[in-house]
From TrEMBL:
Keywords for the protein's UniProt record, in alphabetical order: Membrane, Transmembrane, Transmembrane helix
Sequence intervals crossing the membrane: 7-26, 72-90, 102-124, 157-184
Protein name from the UniProt record: Putative membrane protein YczE
Pfam family of the protein (one): DUF6198
């Protein structure tokens, strides 16, 4: 029980750190990260907040990933909901400063990528499932036999293109984040001495089987 409580705290702290990193990149005003261009465009189209657009996109992606046969963990569901909630909390309360000059904005954006990398480490290391967008990427890699880099790039190109058409902000920061995001995440993982390939995720399906075996089968 104590182990699960600590894992739960680490998971949600990781989501909050991810939200801080995302808002830092948004408030740097150099252009949004590829998926955030889509979220902002969807926000402008529908009139909902960016956080709610993040949640709505996550729900759609999880549904699509499930169709492709990718398993869903509790962490996937929580990721889908709470990062968006934390983004709205930070932005609506103006808890992270907004920069307009190039050098402070660039520093803010790069720090945001690093913070996001640490947030991903925190929630992924719990082993309760990856985020919706990463889950879709994994599902498409399995289905198409294409490389992770190829699928990730295609996903982000589509997200940026649709987001831009809908009115999302594209700038030099968008291209920098597309290029540097993976490097900063890898750097954060290295500092934390975290090997993502060693993580064994626990899925909702596993918990359902456990409950059936533990309670239903015993009664039988």
């Amino acid at each position: 029980m104590r182990k699960n409580i600590l894992a739960f705290i680490k998971l949600f702290f990781g989501y909050f750190v991810c939200a801080v990193g995302i808002v830092m990149t948004i408030n740097s005003n150099l252009g949004l990260a590829p998926w955030d261009v889509f979220h902002q465009g969807l926000s402008k189209l529908t009139g909902i907040t960016i956080g709610r657009a993040h949640i709505l996109t996550g729900v759609s992606i999880v549904a699509l990933s499930s169709i492709f046969g990718e398993k869903v963990g509790w962490g996937t569901i929580f990721n889908m909901l709470f990062i968006g909630i934390f983004i709205d909390f930070l932005m609506l309360n103006n808890l992270i400063p907004i920069f307009n000059k190039f050098l402070p904005s660039l520093i803010m954006m790069l720090l945001g990528l690093l913070v996001l990398g640490f947030g991903c480490y925190l929630y992924l290391s719990v082993g309760w499932g990856s985020g919706p967008r990463d889950g879709l990427m994994i599902a498409l890699v399995k289905k198409t036999n294409k490389s992770v880099r190829f699928i990730k790039n295609i996903q982000e190109i589509i997200a940026v293109s649709i987001g831009y058409i809908l009115g999302g902000s594209v700038g030099i920061g968008t291209f920098l984040m597309a290029i540097l995001g993976g490097y900063f995440m890898q750097f954060a993982f290295k500092i934390a001495k975290f090997d993502v390939s060693q993580i064994q995720h626990r899925f909702i399906e596993d918990d359902i089987k456990f409950i059936k075996e533990k309670f239903i089968c015993k009664k039988s």
